[in-house]
Amino acid sequence: MNSAPFAFSVSVIVPAMNEAENLPHVFATLPSWIDEVILVDGNSTDDTVAVAKALRPGLRVVTQTRRGKGNALTEGFAAATGDIIVMIDADGSTDGREIHAFVTALVEGADFAKGSRCAPGGGSDDISPIRSLGNTMLTKMTNRLYGTRYTDLCYGYNAFWARHLDALDLDCDGFEIETLMNIRAAQAGLVIREVPSHERSRIHGASNLHAVRDGLRVLRTILREREGRVGGVRLHQEHAGHATA
Fold it and tell me: How many domains in the chain?
């Protein structure tokens, strides 16, 4: 185990498909004390896997069995061995140097550290007006339906204690996995703390995200979870560092 500022092991999950050009930038931001990096390869046709292995000795590679970011993350989570799991993107939009803040939130008592571009200190160089509007509306809907106080629902930079994987019970394949995690973490009564995060623009290539299509998938997830899972749980949430019950 590396010399680290924390007494817990940390696994970082990086889902990637054809991100060979971006990985040098992404991996350069990862702290040296991370115990495990797992690249989940979506059957890339470029040199993603070879570049990742060259950049990170000891890297573990998981080859995705289906398609979609949700499936990639789920398979990466299942392979992780660390006490803490962190999920980042392979396109350069998430800064690995922020991992310290996410892990600190967990060590200080949170069960789930949720990145937010909208919390004080956060921001985005990438989000379009239509995506921002959709995210705001979906966030408000989720807060109203589930009693949460999220500021940024549709953001994929998160960290959590591995022991809570069963409570999250993830079962979706697409970009809506981030919303599903946020809802199920709240319904499971996990202590959630938002961590300010700055989203950067993708460095190379084009995003697979489609605002309307994926926004509708998120909406369906919000409504489906409300119909099927609400009831009987006490919510504990920390919002911007303050706890509510």
Answer: 1
